[in-house]
Write a structure and sequence with these properties.
The protein is an alpha+beta fold. The chain contains 5 helices and 14 strands. The N and C termini lie far apart (52 Å). The longest helix is centred in the middle third of the chain and has 18 residues, at 110-127. The chain has helices at residues 10-22, 45-55, 80-85, 88-95, 110-127, and strands spanning 24-26, 58-61, 100-108, 137-152, 158-167, 173-183, 189-197, 200-210, 216-219, 229-235, 241-245, 249-258, 261-270, 273-284. The chain has one domain (10-284). Strands 3-4-5-6-7-8-9-12-13-14 form a 10-stranded antiparallel barrel. This is DUF4238 domain-containing protein.
């Protein structure tokens, strides 16, 4: 059995050892679709972006506009019928995310609220990652929404796209995630969101489909390793890779447009019970 790295906080060591104990050792060659950047032990937040650029010999693009979570909707490999049915506004949001502002409303299931409080207390504030608001937000609260791209210094090709979100009121980091597409073993193209953690990451793989009203539905409803879903990944003290697939945890995001208004509803569930619901109002700048 592997052993988590020792020189880190006891909280991080414990969660990593849990992944090793109940997860699965994997090799890099056969699991490229799942891999993504890992964080360091001195916090994520803005520091991670500079560390990643330095580690992968990339250049941070300072351009502020016309940058998307994906460069083209064609990267999702949807059928021509699906592309034609998908809302043009939703396509523009994903291809030019930096041109939009987000306002957030959140509502917790009271049963899980104490769990959210503990995660924030033990991990989120310290590592500057996954800082989900604990109090229910009824009035829309402004988020910064910054798309940061890391480029190949010679070709200017985009190698990494990071969506950095923080509360405007406090500057507190909500999410710092790397976004890309991947092809899972079934051959389906998915959106992959990678949230770096100390010596590892939390990765959500979402299968896209188009709703009857042109909305984009992203769902992590897989059943096993190799499917869409929620994964923890880490490297142990010997550099071996481990993953834990969290079958009971699901993430569903529906992005829609009506009357020139883009909205998104994100629902997180555990054991088929709603944990947290986010409602986003998305406005073009």
């Amino acid at each position: 059995m592997g052993i988590a790295r020792k020189k880190q906080s006891i909280q991080d060591w414990g969660t990593q050892q849990w992944v090793i104990l109940f997860g699965k050792k994997i090799d890099k060659t056969n699991n490229e679709w799942l891999l993504g950047p890992f964080g360091d032990t001195n916090g994520i937040g803005q520091k991670f972006i500079k560390q990643l650029a330095r580690k992968e010999h990339l250049v941070i693009d300072n351009q502020k506009t016309n940058k998307g979570l994906i460069e083209s909707i064609d990267q999702l490999n949807l059928s021509s019928n699906e592309i034609n049915a998908l809302s043009r506004d939703v396509i523009d949001f994903y291809e030019n995310t930096s041109n939009y502002d987000l306002h957030l409303k959140s509502k917790w299931n009271p049963f899980f609220k104490v769990f959210g409080f503990l995660v924030r207390l033990i991990f989120s504030k310290r590592i500057e990652q996954l800082n989900v608001p604990i109090q229910n937000i009824e009035d829309a609260s402004g988020l910064t929404s910054e798309i940061i791209q890391l480029l190949d210094s010679k070709t200017n090709e985009v190698k990494r796209t990071i969506w950095f979100r923080a509360f405007k009121s406090s500057g507190q980091v909500v999410y710092s995630g790397v976004y890309e597409t991947c092809i899972i073993p079934s051959g389906k193209t998915c959106i992959k969101a990678i949230f770096p953690l100390p010596h590892g990451n939390a990765t959500v793989i979402l299968t896209p489909k188009i709703g009857k009203n042109g909305e984009l539905i992203l769902d992590s409803g897989g059943q096993k390793i190799g499917d869409s879903g929620f994964y923890f990944l880490l490297k142990d003290s010997k550099g071996q890779l481990w993953t834990k697939f969290i079958k009971s945890f699901k993430d569903k995001l529906v992005v829609s447009s009506a009357n020139n208004r883009i909205t998104a509803i994100q629902t997180l569930t555990l054991w088929n019970l709603r944990v947290l619901k986010f409602e986003y109002e998305i406005k073009k700048r």
